[in-house]
Design a protein that fits this description.
This protein has about 375 residues and is mainly alpha-helical. It is about 55% helix and about 5% strand. The strands form three sheets. A two-stranded antiparallel sheet has the order 1-6. A two-stranded antiparallel sheet has the order 2-3.
Amino acid sequence: MCVCAYKRRHYPLNINHLSHIHREENPLFLDFILTRCDVCELVVPICYLMYVSRKDASQVGLIHICTFILLKLSGERSFGISLNRPFKTKLPCDLPLFSGSHADLVSITLHKIMVNGSQRLVPLYSCFLTVVCNFSPYWRSMSLVASVKLVNLFELFSSPKFLYSSERAYQNLKLLIEVFNNIIQYQYNGNQHLVYAIVRRKDSFETLVNLTLSIAINQCNTAFPDSTMKNTETEDRAAEVAAISMQDVDETGVPVTETATTTDKDSLKKSIGRFVPTEEWMVELKSTLPLETVSRLLQHLVPVVDDMCQRKNGVVDEKEILEVFKDITMVGLLPVPHAIVIRKYQPNQYTSIWFTAFMWGVIFLRSQKPPIFDGECIELFNVSNDE
């Protein structure tokens, strides 16, 4: 963390004094962006900057800023609706080709960062998935590429290497399952690509549903045969700060108290050394992961696909299956739709200090020509938290 400090008394820099800059003191500006402007014109350059900077360790701060902007915007219903606008811009990067909306652009970009980005961005994974989760109830038609990549993420985060990397690693899995639930329950029509991608990977979902303690322990021991520590204190602290920066609310902005435990500070403390599943952990995992909606979907659609394959000797065109899915109604077969929960960015002292330090670092480093600041009166130093 880079902080500018003045040596002389007549050039004081008080971080506490400046932290008010980052509080929500101009709500009309956010409303202006969402209602008077084309917010997609802001989303495109943000995604581009995040995509091309994902491997550059010197650009981690930039990706943090972009992430919190997306997190702030995604807390608004109108943002999720706006992302349904078709994306037709050709960006100067190796972004996977797809035919879809700006919602597809955001999800594909965040997927790429998680599977092919700097390790220093790992603490932001929960923020990335929260952004997608926030706008997923309004995602009318997911592209084939985005569908496959989101299900790939599910397989990645449910794999033993990730699931048993720490006691709370399943929180990322929980957010992904919520994305699937939101789309299945609120936007089933028009999202056959995602439904088919889930059906094709049914084994991954069934493995998680049928997970037992003995299986978990065996998988954990196989994935982590040694007793080395999997998470550093720095990563733990960063993940903790990211979590307490969000508040669960419904569509009207009313806090959702029953989900408050997901951001409880104490629940985010990770074990020291290698994590080993316990009976208590298994009970908490089963009660936390909302798998009922996906399970019922698979119970109804897998036999349909199997029957089609049997009637046509295993030669079934994907388009035929998608057409069948369009005609199938899930009314009465799925659980009662859950209330839409949106996790809004919640200002706190940690992010306030980070934003202040980052802002002043950028101001100083970009103000050398002409020298707005007297270099002899300023020094840059690292701030470390040993707690």
